[in-house]
């Protein structure tokens, strides 16, 4: 069986992707024939960043499996170190200001837990590994809840930390609480001259804009809706998958979702008009006088197709509620560039 | 997850990307079920990742790159603590696209650095280049202005002033304003005393503004992207500045606990 440094040599020396690998990492891997607390962090980082290419991945998986199966306690150093770090992390969260070391510690826990999860997923390993992964994830979740609540009140002190790995991990992951301060710290430096834009007093409802040329090029594609028999023409099904809220009318009593307007969609483009909790109760009519294809009423909302609209057009929505009829208008503008 | 295990028994799984991602996120799920779900995610994502990244990635990616990008997604959705925890199919797609695009950007960045190194140019830290700093600030301002304008279609006219204020409160906090500065700027009512009680009220008000700023800002930004006004790549910095990914984190962690 190869040692880790030998196995990972091509990955670790492939600059600049792994500019974060420091002497301490190389030392941890040197001659290692089993995972240690430190080498698991390096392996975890490689896995999290998907730095191993085909061939290297398979070799690493094979090594991890062989290592995990060599003894029922093979992964104990990794597991025990993770429990201990979580205790240390929970303690450091009570400090007045979140220290940079706490962010690093949380990231190291993440790397180790990723290795354990990866090994568990490779299969045919001791059930204890799977159970520890679950238990650790539970404990991580409770630490994270406290940390995220604390982040509301305190900023993390990241000025003192210049860690290339954390910077890279922050670029890959926008949602982790311990990486957010790192990313924001860098963004602050990059946007040092930012001033709040002069927004004036724009209080007019702006038009919905869409790429007219793209809409014209797309025909109706209904495969995304055809999964439910009897609901083939119900665009409501596309709202959770492809819809984005782009307008509210009647003080929020009617919502309009854009479907297929962006440049990355591949489905029929249109607007879906419905009530906030679904359905079209009280929406008496939706009209688009200058549209090539008139809006149609579906089982639970109105569909306004945008194909064929070549210039600015108006959508009129009529709402009947408590015996009172109201009408609101919205402008849609195709952009040809 | 390069080697997906063939399950020894048939596991019935739901048939949507979101459900598979949730199976992968479930810590009580057996490795076999997770493996099967990973296989489904792999085949689903493989069917659209090429065209998606051809449109959205900042550089051209070949098949090997796509392979790396998808592997990264599989790791993110099946190991560690930041797996998908959304509630809808739409969120599942958006989550995958974001993870894939971030990895694609990472690959492109590395490639750019490698080219600079090959041509023996010094790798400059772009953070200290005054031109780029100015450019980032201008770009952020341009998109933020569009976000503020977008609010007028999403909210009632009478709420707009307050919402813009909340958004500004959040952005300034993220750019380094302290809670004390923000209590003075946003928290106290005119002529309000600075008693302990008033300070606590002002502090809570600022926290509330920040939270509301995040939710309305991220919603308006999504609306802009949905209309094709900006693409994903252009709004990465603003998304980060607003902390759009973060709002999900707390519910993720709480969901994990429950």
How does this structure look, described?
The complex is a heterodimer of chains A (337) and B (258). By secondary structure, chain A is an alpha+beta fold. Chain A folds into 2 domains: 4-190, no CATH class; 208-335, no CATH class. In chain A, 42% of the residues lie in helices and 16% in strands. Chain A contains 11 helices and 9 strands. In chain A, the strands form 2 sheets. Chain A has a 5-stranded antiparallel sheet with strand order 2-3-4-7-6. A 4-stranded mixed sheet of chain A has the order 1-9-8-5. In chain A, β8 and β9 (324-335) form a beta hairpin. In chain A, α3 crosses α6. Chain A is elongated, with a radius of gyration of 27 Å. The N and C termini of chain A lie far apart (59 Å). The relative contact order of chain A is 0.08. Mean pLDDT of chain A is 84; it is low at 213-232. With 258 residues, chain B is mainly α. Chain B folds into 2 domains: 17-118; 126-257, no CATH class. Chain B is 69% helix and 0% strand. The longest helix of chain B is centred in the C-terminal third of the chain and has 31 residues, at 196-226. The radius of gyration of chain B is 22 Å and the shape is globular.
């Amino acid at each position: 069986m190869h040692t880790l440094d030998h196995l990972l040599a091509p990955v670790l020396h492939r600059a600049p992707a792994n500019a974060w690998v420091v002497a301490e990492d190389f030392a941890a891997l040197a001659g290692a024939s089993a995972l240690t607390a430190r080498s698991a962090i390096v392996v975890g980082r490689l896995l999290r960043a998907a730095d191993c290419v085909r061939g290297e991945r398979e070799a690493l998986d094979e090594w991890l499996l062989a290592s995990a199966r060599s003894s029922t306690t093979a992964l104990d150093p990794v597991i025990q170190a993770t429990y201990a770090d979580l205790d240390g992390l929970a303690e450091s969260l009570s400090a007045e200001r979140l220290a940079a070391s706490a962010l690093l510690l949380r990231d190291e826990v993440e790397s180790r837990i990723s290795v354990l999860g990866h090994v568990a997923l490779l299969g045919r390993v001791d059930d204890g590994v799977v159970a520890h992964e679950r238990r650790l994830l539970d404990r991580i979740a409770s630490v994270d809840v406290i940390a995220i609540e604390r982040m509301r009140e305190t900023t993390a002190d990241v000025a003192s930390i210049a860690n290339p790995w954390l910077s890279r991990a922050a670029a890959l992951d926008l949602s982790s609480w311990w990486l957010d301060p790192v990313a924001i710290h860098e963004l602050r430096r990059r946007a040092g001259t930012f001033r709040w834009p002069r927004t004036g007093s724009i209080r007019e409802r702006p038009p919905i804009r869409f790429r007219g040329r793209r809409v014209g090029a797309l025909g109706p594609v209904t495969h995304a809706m055809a999964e439910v028999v009897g609901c083939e023409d119900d665009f409501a099904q596309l709202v959770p998958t492809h819809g984005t809220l782009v307008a509210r009318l009647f003080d929020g009593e009617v919502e309009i979702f854009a479907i297929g307007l962006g440049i990355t969609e591949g489905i029929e483009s249109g607007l879906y008009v419905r009530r906030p909790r679904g359905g079209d109760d009280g929406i008496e009519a939706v009209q688009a006088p200058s549209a090539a294809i008139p809006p149609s009423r579906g089982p639970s909302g109105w569909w306004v197709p945008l194909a064929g609209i070549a210039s600015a057009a108006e959508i009129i929505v009529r709402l009947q509620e408590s015996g009172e009829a109201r009408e609101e208008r919205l402008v849609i503008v195709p952009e040809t560039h | 997850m390069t080697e997906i295990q063939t399950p020894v028994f048939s596991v019935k799984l739901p048939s949507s990307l979101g459900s598979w991602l949730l199976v992968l996120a479930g810590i009580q799920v057996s490795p076999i079920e997770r493996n099967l779900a990973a296989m489904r995610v792999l085949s689903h994502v493989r069917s659209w990742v090429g065209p998606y990244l051809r449109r959205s990635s900042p550089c051209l990616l070949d098949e090997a790159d796509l392979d790396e990008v998808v592997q990264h997604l599989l790791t993110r959705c099946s190991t560690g603590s930041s797996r998908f925890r959304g509630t809808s199919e739409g969120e599942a797609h958006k989550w995958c696209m974001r993870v894939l695009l971030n990895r694609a950007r990472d690959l492109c960045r590395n490639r750019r650095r490698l080219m600079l190194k090959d041509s023996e140019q010094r790798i400059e830290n772009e953070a200290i280049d005054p031109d780029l700093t100015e450019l980032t600030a201008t770009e952020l301002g341009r998109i933020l202005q569009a976000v503020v304008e977008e609010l007028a279609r999403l909210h009632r006219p009478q709420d707009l002033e307050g919402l813009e204020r909340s958004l500004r409160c959040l952005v300034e906090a993220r750019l380094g304003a302290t809670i004390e500065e923000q209590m003075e700027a946003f928290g106290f009512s005119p002529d309000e005393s600075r008693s302990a009680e008033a300070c606590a009220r002002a502090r809570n008000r600022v926290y509330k503004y920040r939270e509301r700023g995040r939710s309305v800002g991220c919603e308006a930004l999504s609306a802009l992207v949905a209309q094709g006004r900006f693409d994903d790549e252009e709004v990465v910095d603003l998304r980060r500045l607003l902390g759009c990914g973060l709002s999900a984190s707390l519910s993720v962690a709480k969901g994990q606990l429950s």
